[in-house]
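Design request, tokens follow.
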């Protein structure tokens, strides 16, 4: 059922219903009505789900395919890539979400010192840390990397 798949996504992202709804631009009660199967999700909700969490809408609607869409970014290519202005990307994400460095660290699991070093252009994010950013914010690896 669609409602069960929507709830599964929220649980996989370790979000409360109210946080999940807020990030998708919904009232909590509206989101919960989707999750309980009382209402069918709107097309706008489904688009935001795909955009914010890289969810495969075919899976949401039918239960077929993978839960998350595959990026066209090839991880094998990462050795030949560099991050695009990682300091600006982190600062932009922090500003958009009104996050301190400590909050950004808690959400992503990236060490605060690594975030500060990146912001100060003292070092780049590792691919592992870039994936943590992708998993928690509305960006893809394609957004973060630029071929050399």
């Amino acid at each position: 059922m669609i409602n069960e798949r929507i709830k599964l996504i929220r649980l996989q992202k370790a979000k409360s219903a109210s946080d999940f709804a807020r990030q998708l631009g919904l009232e909590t009660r509206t989101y919960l009505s989707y999750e309980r199967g009382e209402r069918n999700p709107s097309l706008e909700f489904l688009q935001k789900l795909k955009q914010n969490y890289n969810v495969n809408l075919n899976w949401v609607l039918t239960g077929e395919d993978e839960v998350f869409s595959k990026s066209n970014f090839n991880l094998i290519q990462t050795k030949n890539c560099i991050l695009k202005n990682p300091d600006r990307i982190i600062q932009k994400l922090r500003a958009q979400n009104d996050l301190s460095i400590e909050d950004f660290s808690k959400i992503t699991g990236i060490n605060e010192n690594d975030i500060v070093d990146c912001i100060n252009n003292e070092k780049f994010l590792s691919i592992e840390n870039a994936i943590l950013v992708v998993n928690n914010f509305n960006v893809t690896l394609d957004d973060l990397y630029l071929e050399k």
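Comment from the thread starter after seeing the answer: thanks! Residues 131 and 148 are 19 Å apart (CA to CA).
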